[in-house]
Design goal:
Layout lengths: L1 E6 L4 E8 L3 E9 L11 H23 L8 E7 L3 H17 L4 E5 H12 L7 E6 L4 E6 L5 E6 L5 H11 L7 H8 L24 H12 L3 H6 L1 H27 L3 E5 L6 H13 L3 E3 L3 H4 L3 H15 L17
Parallel strand pairs: 1-4, 4-5, 6-9, 9-10
Antiparallel strand pairs: 1-2, 2-3, 6-7, 7-8
The chain binds 5'-O-[(R)-(carboxyoxy)(hydroxy)phosphoryl]adenosine and zinc ion.
Length: 334
């Protein structure tokens, strides 16, 4: 079964063709760059950019897959959570295409897409597993009881982990979005240079909080001269990253132990973080758990994960109503 997956919830316009939820035939991802000068995603600009690019990205995805629209069996698109304008572009395009080609259409939860990124690539992953979702908009630990059955163990009370990386990267003059650049810079720094707070590390439960850590970095930087900051840039980046990552690692390992889950996945843009991957792998290995994470193109927002999630949703529940609309604050179903 061939699924065309469409993702436009934030600042990536992406269309993919995936066979049976497992084999990627194409996955075209166009990341918008127009937002960097504003230091964050501007919803109106994002919506208009999706509108300009969606047809071209769709054509490229079909041509790279070597498949014609007539061979596609299912159209899937993100319905939320995300920015309303961007979501509407992808969703409306998908519904129009499905209607014109008389194909079933399925609306996909963006977070379920991130969860499906690991199902797509790791075929021996147990259906009952723990997942850490860490992106620019979300930070949550979820017990997956099988596709479509989720228990949210905890989430962030304020900023998402990726948001904290982006805000600190901006404070360090690394531009926007700076999470990946901060990761690269931190590789040359000393993570023990300064001990930033590790918010909620010791508290029971699985909630996160990242706004205080960002503020702690901002206050620390205020005490330094521009020259001192430049000299210690890599050390400060590494010290922040250590605090941010340790909280994610600690809570994930604790949840894996308490729930006695042998398989753990990480997904979302921050799953690309090299320090998170290294430390989490070490800590989980020590307690006999397996860690899975997507390859880099499947960490950030992409159409392939939406196609995979759409395929599984269609298997479980059939097609969505054509009347379904975009929902910016869509909750992850249980
Ligand atoms: O999943 P994603 O593409 O979009 C959302 O759904 O939010 O995640 C983007 C986020 C951004 O905050 C970006 O800075 C962060 O992922 N990110 C990273 C790294 N690569 C991307 N954060 C830390 N280290 C990285 N290597
Ligand atoms: Zn995402």
């Amino acid at each position: 079964m061939l699924t065309l997956g469409i993702e436009t919830s934030c600042d990536e316009t992406s269309v993919a063709v995936v066979r049976s939820g497992r084999e990627i035939l194409s996955n075209v991802i166009l990341s918008q760059t127009d937002h960097s000068k504003f230091g964050g995603v501007v919803p109106e600009i994002a919506g208009r950019a999706h509108l300009r690019k969606i047809v071209g990205v769709y054509r490229q995805a079909l041509s790279e897959s070597g498949v014609e629209l007539e061979q596609i069996d299912l159209i899937a698109a993100t319905m939320g959570p995300g920015l309303i304008g961007p979501l509407l572009v992808g969703l409306t395009f998908a519904k129009g295409l499905a209607f014109a080609a008389s194909l079933p259409f399925v609306a996909v939860h963006h977070i379920e897409g991130h969860i499906a990124a690991n199902l797509l690539e790791h075929h021996d992953l147990q259906s009952h597993h723990l997942t850490l979702i860490v992106s620019g908009g979300h930070t949550m630990l979820v017990e997956v009881n099988g596709f479509g059955s989720y228990k949210i163990l905890g989430a962030t009370k304020d900023d998402a982990a990726g948001e904290a990386f982006d805000k600190v990267a901006k404070l360090l003059g690394l531009g926007y979005p700076g999470g990946a650049r901060l990761d690269r810079l931190a590789a040359d720094g000393d993570p023990e240079f300064f001990r930033f707070p590790r918010p909620m590390l010791k508290e029971p439960g699985y909630q996160f909080s990242y706004s205080g850590l960002k503020t702690a970095v901002a206050l620390y930087l205020k005490k330094l001269s521009p020259d001192q900051i430049q000299q210690q840039l890599a050390d400060i980046a590494a010290s922040f990253q250590e605090a941010a990552v340790m909280v994610l690692v600690e809570k994930t390992v604790r949840a894996a132990k308490e729930l006695q889950l042998a398989d753990v996945t990480v997904s979302g843009g921050v799953a690309a973080n090299s320090r998170l991957r290294t430390i989490l792998a070490e800590r989980l290995d020590a307690i006999g758990c397996r860690l899975f994470y997507p390859t880099l193109p499947l960490c950030t927002d992409n159409g392939a994960m939406i196609a995979a999630a759409g395929y599984y949703r269609f298997q479980n529940e059939g097609a969505s109503e054509m009347a379904v609309s975009a929902v910016p604050y869509l909750k992850l179903g249980v």
